[in-house]
Amino acid sequence: DQQVKQNSPSLSVQEGRISILNCDYTNSMFDYFLWYKKYPAEGPTFLISISSIKDKNEDGRFTVFLNKSAKHLSLHIVPSQPGDSAVYFCAASVSTNAGKSTFGDGTTLTVKP
Amino acid sequence: EPEVTQTPSHQVTQMGQEVILRCVPISNHLYFYWYRQILGQKVEFLVSFYNNEISEKSEIFDDQFSVERPDGSNFTLKIRSTKLEDSAMYFCASKKGGSWWEQYFGPGTRLTVT
Asked: Does the pLDDT at position A108 exceed 90?
């Protein structure tokens, strides 16, 4: 049972344009969502998060949108830069103290100069 | 900026041998985790640890696995008798707790079982 899905394995965008990465989840208990960025041979790096009480969270070029009724979230990167090229993982958790994160399969973003 | 560190970066072992993967979480964090990523697959939860005991473990985390926080800084994952299918990247993560839900990951240990 794949509780967190990222249906696009890859995305390619031009530098300066918007990148939109999507994520769907099935477990209604999830109430905290995170995006991680991962370069090869490195661990996931926390990027941005959102609680289920919000529908939007913004941090610089990164904005995460949450649609609880659709069980869908998205990460917008504007403007995209070549250094943003990496694998992006969506993760979801239940905000209990020891809550683990359940990860999606990842989307490889390539930003072309 | 504080970070999670892991040693070794790469461990090669023979099937049936014991391995210990080591992690130093961020110093004021209270919750600790191990995840793994088999090549080409997703990051999978193994175990969470708080207050010197396991909080939750996945079905992957069977009797061959154990975790320990032997002192105030290290957090270890032991695999008692490695199998070929244990070959993966193993990531340690830590979380502050309270209203801080983000987990911070180490760079990983690549375990190769031959």
From this structure: yes
Give the minimum alpha-carbon distance from B97 to chain A in angstroms, rounded to a whole number.
Answer: 6
Look at residue A100 and tell me whether its pLDDT is greater than 90. Answer: no
| Contact (Cβ atoms closer than 8 angstroms) between residue A113 and residue A96 | no
Please state, in angstroms and rounded to a whole number, the distance separating the CA atoms of residues B97 and A21. 28
Q: Smallest Cα–Cα separation from B29: which of B98, B111, B113?
A: B98
The answer to whether A104 faces chain B, any CB pair under 8 Å, is yes
Which 3 state secondary structure label does DSSP give A84? helix
**B55 contacts A46? CB cut-off 8 A:** no
Tens-digit pLDDT profile for residues B20-66: 999 999 998 999 999 999 988 889 999 999 989 999 999 999 999 99
A40 vs B contacts (CB less than 8 Å):
none
Q: Which amino acid is at A111?
A: V
